[in-house]
Design a protein that fits this description.
Elements (H helix, E strand, L loop, with lengths): L1 H8 L3 E5 L14 H7 L5 E8 H15 L4 E4 L1 E7 L5 E8 L10 E7 L1 H5 L9 E6 H11 L12 E4 L1
Parallel strand pairs: 1-6, 4-8
Antiparallel strand pairs: 1-3, 2-6, 2-7, 4-5
Helix pairs in contact: 1-5
Length: 161
């Protein structure tokens, strides 16, 4: 889902909260009905230009809100380091190139409109709706690629003590 949004919409990073993903597996032949079962909420895709620290803050807030990994991601791998009481000590962000995200640059980040409305995280950019639902962005991506191959189920969010 997040891979499709990121590629379809030219994003650097894409996030979706676990509650916005309603199916754990899709059939080999994905239908429009499957997409709406996966993503039934009619949320818009919202884009923000975010600093590395703002991305880190979003992940920290989401972890503390749900007491665990709540954001699925494309475009990076993140590790939440916690102490014995499960308090967040650090969030490490690794880009697709295997290196830490650059602290001095910004990233084009997309997510469902639910995230900025439900997660109280610091960000300068108020965000902009792209006028397309998350489900429609996924459908557009899939329509251009009738045969998907090479997808690997890679863990992109981790917790470390």
């Amino acid at each position: 889902m997040t891979d499709a949004w990121r590629r379809e919409l030219g994003l650097d990073i894409a996030f979706q909260n676990n509650g916005g993903i309603r199916l754990r597996r899709l059939s080999r032949k994905i239908t429009v009905k499957d997409v709406y079962a996966l993503d039934p909420f009619e949320n818009q895709v919202v884009v923000m230009i975010m600093t590395t620290d703002e991305i880190r803050n979003l992940i920290r807030i989401s972890f503390e809100k749900g007491e665990g990994i709540d954001l699925q991601v494309s475009g990076l791998v993140y590790t939440v380091r916690i102490d014995a009481e499960r308090r967040v000590q650090d969030v490490q962000l690794i880009g697709q190139d295997g290196r830490p995200l650059q602290e001095d640059r910004t990233y084009k980040v997309g997510f469902s409109s639910y995230i900025p409305s439900a997660y109280d995280f610091a960000h300068r950019d108020p965000g902009k709706s792209l006028g397309i639902t998350t489900a429609d962005a996924l459908i557009n991506y899939l329509e251009k690629r009738p045969r998907l191959s090479g997808y690997q189920n890679v863990q992109r969010a981790r917790i470390r003590h």
